[in-house]
């Protein structure tokens, strides 16, 4: 936490190093730990989040070193040595660790794992993972909340051999899908999964890059079908992690909003299920000269490229449709900052999943919009779909006749916003609620509003972007 308010309204220039991709680093650590031998991970994200996954395997007998170039060297006795052990692991704030490792640990015969986490992680809903795993025969004890029919931490997993199932994943969640893929890779018969939305596919890409055709992806009757085949022997790997496009989004949007900025971000991951944020930023600026992508290549099945960005003064509103939400969900808070400085109305459909992120990320996003003094509304239809509307050109949002089926839920979200945000010096105090993306979005928002910000609990930024504060001299 900083002691006084700041405004990040200085331009950024030159080459800026973006840390390694968080999602890919988690998965590379997992596959390294499952193999008997030594693995090398180049450009890993050495954040609190990813190191929670690493520490989970250290508790099971895996060792690691960080070399002089900040690469991970992982030595593991292999998955067979994890059997019949009992450990207690603290996953801190890492939702990715929690969901991926639940499916993995539930499938290792004889392994007993007691899992805890911080206050935020202990509120994350786990029924979406536990339910299908129990259908596979998993034994998992978790805190049950009868009023919500939901499971949360603390949780104990009793690993065993699981059976195969055919299962339709209702949530547009890559973490749920990946958890069940790991379970399928470790049982005797695999698993068949169905999912309506196209979600992040790093797990499938890594599996098939390391072990050809062990996750077969097809489009069947409008759904994605994942046929997962078991892996009999895991092998050590050498893997280069691309830079994280979600982290890059904060730097890109800051550059777009601050005159004089001209930056280059190298080896950024451009996976089609992740780069929706780049596509939508391009729609907002609608100028091919502002953002350019060069040196596009493919490494380990992942597309990467160099992104060059300069300041732009011309932005306009856009609509983000429901089908694209799974691949841009994490970037909605920072994208909302950009849309608050754009001409015309923007609509972001089906933002429901924001409510169950590290914080109530929807409530925190509208708090950012209030800090930015931007007109907005949050509306919900009879099917429960929630849409966020942002329009900086009007003083008050008025109902659109095409949205008569929707009802505003803005007041119910505003009650989550703590009122005491401004001190006598006119500083806006933003509670991060342990949410790294909200903390960083708050800092970027400060560059375009005439009121310094103080982000309470900004140490959570270490979860995904350890060098963020260094880039901005915070």
From TrEMBL:
EC code(s) of this entry: 2.5.1.19
Major subcellular location class: cytoplasm
UniProt KW RNA-binding keyword: no
Gene Ontology BP term (one): chorismate biosynthetic process
Chain positions recorded as phosphoenolpyruvate binding sites: 22, 95, 124, 175, 361, 437
InterPro entries found in the cross-reference section: Enolpyruvate_Tfrase_dom (IPR001986), Enolpyruvate_Tfrase_sf (IPR036968), EPSP_synthase (IPR006264), EPSP_synthase_CS (IPR023193), RNA3'P_cycl/enolpyr_Trfase_a/b (IPR013792)
Pathway participation: Metabolic intermediate biosynthesis; chorismate biosynthesis; chorismate from D-erythrose 4-phosphate and phosphoenolpyruvate: step 6/7
Active site (UniProt): 330
Purpose of the protein: Catalyzes the transfer of the enolpyruvyl moiety of phosphoenolpyruvate (PEP) to the 5-hydroxyl of shikimate-3-phosphate (S3P) to produce enolpyruvyl shikimate-3-phosphate and inorganic phosphate.
Family: Belongs to the EPSP synthase family.
HAMAP family found in the cross-reference section: EPSP_synth (MF_00210)
PANTHER family: AROM/DEHYDROQUINATE SYNTHASE, PENTAFUNCTIONAL AROM POLYPEPTIDE
Protein name: 3-phosphoshikimate 1-carboxyvinyltransferase
Protein species of origin: Abyssicoccus albus
Classification of source organism: Bacteria, Bacillati, Bacillota, Bacilli, Bacillales
């Amino acid at each position: 936490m900083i002691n006084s308010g700041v405004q990040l309204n200085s331009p950024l220039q030159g080459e800026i190093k973006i840390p390694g991709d968080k999602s890919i680093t988690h998965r590379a650590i997992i596959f390294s730990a499952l193999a008997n031998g030594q693995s090398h991970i180049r450009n890993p994200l050495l954040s609190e989040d990813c190191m929670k996954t690493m520490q989970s395997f250290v508790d099971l007998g895996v060792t690691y070193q960080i070399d002089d170039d900040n690469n991970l060297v992982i030595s593991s006795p292999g998955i067979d040595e994890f059997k019949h052990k009992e450990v207690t692991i603290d996953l801190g704030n890492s939702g990715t660790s929690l969901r991926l490792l639940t499916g993995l640990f539930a499938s290792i015969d004889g392994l007993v794992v007691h899992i805890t986490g911080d206050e935020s992680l202990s509120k994350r809903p786990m029924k979406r993972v536990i339910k299908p795993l129990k259908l596979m025969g998993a034994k998992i004890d978790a805190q049950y909340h009868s009023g919500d029919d939901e499971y949360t931490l603390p949780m104990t997993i009793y690993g065993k051999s699981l059976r195969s199932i055919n299962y339709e994943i209702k949530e547009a969640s890559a973490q749920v899908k990946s958890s069940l893929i790991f379970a399928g890779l470790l049982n005797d018969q695999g698993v068949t999964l169905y999912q309506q939305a196209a979600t992040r596919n790093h797990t499938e890409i890594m599996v098939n890059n390391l072990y050809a055709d062990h996750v077969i992806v097809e489009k069947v009757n409008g759904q994605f079908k994942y046929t997962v085949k078991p892996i009999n022997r895991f092998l050590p790997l050498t893997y280069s992690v691309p830079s994280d496009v979600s982290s890059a989004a904060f730097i890109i949007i800051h550059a777009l909003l601050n005159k004089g900025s001209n930056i280059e971000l190298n080896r950024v991951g451009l996976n089609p299920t992740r780069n929706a944020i780049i596509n939508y930023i391009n729609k907002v600026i609608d100028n091919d000269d502002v953002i350019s992508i060069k040196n596009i290549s493919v490494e380990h099945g992942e597309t990467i490229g160099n992104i060059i960005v300069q300041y732009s003064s011309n932005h306009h509103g856009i609509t983000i449709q429901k089908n694209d939400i799974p691949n841009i969900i994490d970037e909605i808070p920072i994208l909302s900052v950009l849309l608050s400085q754009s001409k015309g109305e923007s609509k972001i459909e089906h933002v429901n999943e924001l409510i169950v992120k590290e914080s109530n990320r929807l409530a925190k996003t509208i708090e950012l919009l209030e800090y930015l003094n931007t007109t907005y509304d949050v509306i919900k239809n009879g099917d429960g779909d929630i849409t966020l509307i942002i329009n900086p050109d009007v003083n008050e949002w008025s109902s659109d006749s095409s949205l008569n089926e929707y009802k505003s839920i803005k007041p119910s979200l505003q009650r989550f916003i703590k009122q005491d945000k401004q001190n006598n010096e006119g500083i806006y105090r933003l509670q991060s609620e342990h949410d790294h993306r909200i903390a960083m979005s708050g800092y970027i928002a400060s560059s375009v509003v005439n009121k310094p910000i103080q982000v309470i609990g900004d140490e959570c930024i270490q979860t995904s972007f350890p060098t963020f504060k260094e880039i901005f001299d915070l």
